[in-house]
Amino acid sequence: MSRRPEQSVADLVGRAREGDARSVGRLISLVEDESPLLREVMTALAPHAGHAHVVGITGSPGVGKSTSTSALVTELRAGGKRVGILAVDPSSPFSGGALLGDRVRMQEHALDPEVYIRSMASRGHLGGLAWTTPQALRVLDAAGCDVILVETVGVGQSEIEIAGLADTTVVLLAPGMGDGIQAAKAGILEIGDLYVVNKADRDGADQVRRDLRSMLALAQRPEGAWQPPIVATVAARGEGLDEVAAELEKHLAWLRSSGELAKRRTRRARDEIEAIAVTALRARWGDVHGRSELDDLAAAVGAGESDPYTAADELLATFTD
After folding, report:
1. Sheet holding 115-121, edge to edge
2. Does residue 134 surpass a pLDDT of 90?
3. Reduced to 3 DSSP states, what percent helix, strand and coil does the chain have, rounded to the nearest 5?
4. Are residues 36 and 78 in the same domain?
């Protein structure tokens, strides 16, 4: 569907700030499509961003991330919060779009004007997120969301990128998952600010909590550091989500008082700047040189006539010539 030519970026941003869901959706679409207007959009959003509490929700497949996210939205709305949800889904191999629809996943919130739900396709990006997630977060932040929930794809041990994006990272586990904590401990057990044992009405939930306590007790944390709590929930029945919401508030208060919030957001901005710069550098190199030079250098390394460090130096030198 073509966009109305008279609707400028300033108009879209203004309407999004007033809570217009269509304008928020169009801005996120500009982000996902890597529109030529993207720089203008980010410039217009910058003065209005930086207020939302970004909460990442991660865990192995089958632990109930979508159900928990939906139940948490209910709890946050009861507290008067405006909520944004970015649900990052696997990509369709045909269209590149998200395989799961946002309205299908959280129908009970679809008509709430204070909740904005958006499914984003990972499009092959590793780490459980979409490449454009940071920019989409900025749109929801500037649109006045108090809390933004980012639900990751669900890819087990590689799903740790969320820790660099969120202010608070929630790690979900559940009993009866076969390999249980073993599936997560190599990566996501190291990134959590809050651990949630979902499906706590099932056999084995107490054992999961004991295992978690034992593993967290082994972590070397400096004095004054945040000590991640463990909360039991039954998200399908809405049980325990009030405690989750309370722990999120406690962690946000600690982040602010300790100065960690500013550090995390500076680190997040640095990573975003670096990713944009590297992407632009690759595009610029491709526009100017094509792929033939890289292919020649790769062939030389493969043949033993050069080494990868020398080849990389030669490639970088093309930008200074």
Report:
1. 115-121, 83-89, 147-151, 53-59, 168-173, 194-197, 230-232
2. no
3. 50, 15, 35
4. no
Distances (CA, A) of 62 to 98, 103, 107, 300: 18, 20, 20, 46
pTM metric for this prediction:
0.84
| Average pLDDT, rounded, for the chain | 82
Q: Which two tokens stand for residue 170?
A: 């929630």
- Tens of pLDDT along 69-84? 999 999 999 999 999 9
Model pLDDT, residue 201: 95
Q: How many residues does the chain have?
A: 321
Residue 285 or 314, more confident = 314
One domain, residues 187 and 293:
no
Which amino acid, residue 190?
Answer: E
Query: How many domains is the chain partitioned into structurally?
Result: 3
CB-based contacts of 300: which residues, under 8 Å, 6+ apart? Answer: 306, 311
